[in-house]
Amino acid sequence: MAARSPITCHVLDSSCGRPGRNVPVKLEALNTAANNTWSGLAEGLTDTDGRVSTLLDPSYQLVAGIYRMTFQTSEYWASVGVTSYFHPYVQIIFEIAPGAEKQHYHIPLLLSPYSYTTYRGS
């Protein structure tokens, strides 16, 4: 298997059963030493399959802590002609526990104009 980013994501538009293409994605880490501010780690754009597999360099070493992934869903809805939606963006906050820093984290987002869901993927 080729080396991959330690954190990846996937957007699926469940309202039409297709990948969420060209969704801007931002990954941040909570910096508890700096008054709990968010520090940007990476930005990307979902590909034609709705995935971002290159957010971080494969050699990037994760540290235990809290992370936030933001999906700019309003840009996606505009690109597919949807004008009425509830979430202009989706933020998924997740934690990497001490001792689990070497695991791979995959963040899927199942999206429709009025709802979303996520889970820890593989």
3D structure, described in words:
The protein has 122 residues and is mainly β. The chain has one helix and nine strands; from the N terminus they run E-E-E-E-E-E-H-E-E-E. It has one helix spanning 73-79; strands at 7-13, 18-19, 24-31, 37-45, 51-52, 65-71, 90-96, 105-112, 115-118. The strands form two sheets. Strands 1, 2, 5, 8 and 9 form a five-stranded mixed beta sheet that branches. The longest helix has 7 residues, at 73-79. It is globular and about 40 Å long. The model has no long low-confidence stretch (mean pLDDT 95). Catalyzes the hydrolysis of 5-hydroxyisourate (HIU) to 2-oxo-4-hydroxy-4-carboxy-5-ureidoimidazoline (OHCU). It comes from Dissophora globulifera. Belongs to the transthyretin family. 5-hydroxyisourate hydrolase subfamily.
Layout of helices and strands, plus pairs?
Elements lengths: L6 E7 L4 E2 L4 E8 L5 E9 L5 E2 L12 E7 L1 H7 L10 E7 L8 E8 L2 E4 L4
How many E strands? 9
Beta-sheet strand percentage? 35-45%
Helix content: under 10%
What is the general shape?
Answer: globular
- Please give the largest β-sheet: 5 strands, mixed
Give the ordered list of helices and strands: EEEEEEHEEE
Radius of gyration: 15 Å
Cα distance spanning the termini: 14 Å
Average pLDDT number:
95
Return the structural class.
Answer: mainly beta
- Quickly count the helices: 1
